[in-house]
Design a protein that fits this description.
Distance between the termini: 28 Å
Number of domains: 1
Structural class: alpha/beta
Bound molecules: hypoxanthine
Strand order of the largest sheet: 5-8-7-6-9
CATH topology: Rossmann fold
Number of helices: 6
Helix content: 25-40%
Largest sheet: 5 strands, mixed, barrel
Strand content: 15-25%
Order of helices and strands: HEEEEHEEHEHEHEH
CATH class: Alpha Beta
CATH superfamily: Nucleoside phosphorylase domain
Shape: globular
Radius of gyration: 17 Å
């Protein structure tokens, strides 16, 4: 990690973020709100390949949101692109090593609940990780975190309570639910979606859970928001496509640009 931090320090020698904000497909809008922004392409950081998916910019943006120093990861790395878990570990741990204590994770998702439709935001209460393998597999570096990490309360209850109160104040509906993560890049079959409903999933997507496991391992507190871009396949006559996902991500992103700054401000004020 030293080489990762050294590369960032060339651009921002003294910047210490309070939190990291990981922005998924079509959700990058919030990074434009940062003031005194310093933008660093992932390519300039050793071990981070640029994500190839349209809607993902692959930029680290350091700056201030509501006066609070934050590190926005604009664009994530997906396993389905052939990226290794090692790169995803670097991306998440970079936030911790820059000095942050909290990670806000966002991701586009399909909803398994008919009453929660495209353009809505769901607060992630917990996850079901169905990616192949585990992002912590391989030798463990004890200086980063323990070999066996608890995922109880992975999506911090206190942070969820704050987020719910903020959403209520802003009059933005914020249903809470379980996010089920799959490798992708194929979308699910209707039969899989029926099966996932019986497993207790409320939303399905291709990210979030690996990053949250890595974040919890290195001791970052986590708050997760799923941007609902569609009803999961089989629940509506509309086809599930990446283009449709990006289109509706914009509606959810507008809500995120209200929810996240208010959250950042409140968190900083309470500490
Ligand atoms: N399935 C998986 N990932 C997604 C979906 C979906 O329906 N929508 C947005 N990301």
């Amino acid at each position: 990690m030293q080489e990762v931090i050294a590369a960032i320090r060339k651009y921002a020698p003294h910047f210490v973020p309070k939190m990291g904000i990981l922005l998924g497909s079509g959700l990058g809008m919030i990074a434009e709100q940062l003031t005194q922004a310093i933008t660093i392409p992932y390519q300039a950081i050793p071990g981070l390949q640029a994500g190839a998916v349209s809607g993902h910019a692959s930029l680290l943006v350091l700056g201030y949101l509501q006066g609070v120093p934050v590190a926005c990861l604009k664009g994530r790395l997906h396993l389905y692109e052939g990226v290794s878990y090692e790169s995803i570990r670097r991306l998440v741990r970079m936030v911790k090593f820059l000095g942050a204590d909290t990670l806000v994770v966002t991701g586009a998702a399909g909803s398994l609940r008919e009453e929660v439709g495209a353009g809505e935001v769901m607060l992630i209460q917990d996850h079901i990780h169905l990616h192949p393998g585990n992002p912590l597999q391989g030798p463990n570096d004890e200086s980063i975190g323990p070999r066996f990490v608890s995922l109880e309360n992975a999506y911090d209850e206190g942070l969820r309570d704050s987020m719910k109160a903020i959403a209520a104040r802003l009059a933005i509906a914020l249903p809470e639910g379980v996010y089920l993560s799959l490798l992708g890049p194929s979308f699910e079959t209707p039969a899989e979606i029926r099966a996932f409903r019986t497993l207790g999933a409320d939303a399905v997507g291709m990210s979030v859970a690996p990053e949250v496991i890595i974040a919890r391992h290195c001791g970052l507190r986590v708050m997760g928001l799923a941007a609902i871009t569609n009803l999961a396949v089989g629940l509506s006559s509309d086809k599930v496509t990446h283009e449709g996902t990006l289109h509706f991500a914009e509606f959810a992103a507008r809500k995120l640009t209200k929810l996240i700054p208010a959250f950042v401000k409140e968190l900083a004020a309470n500490e």
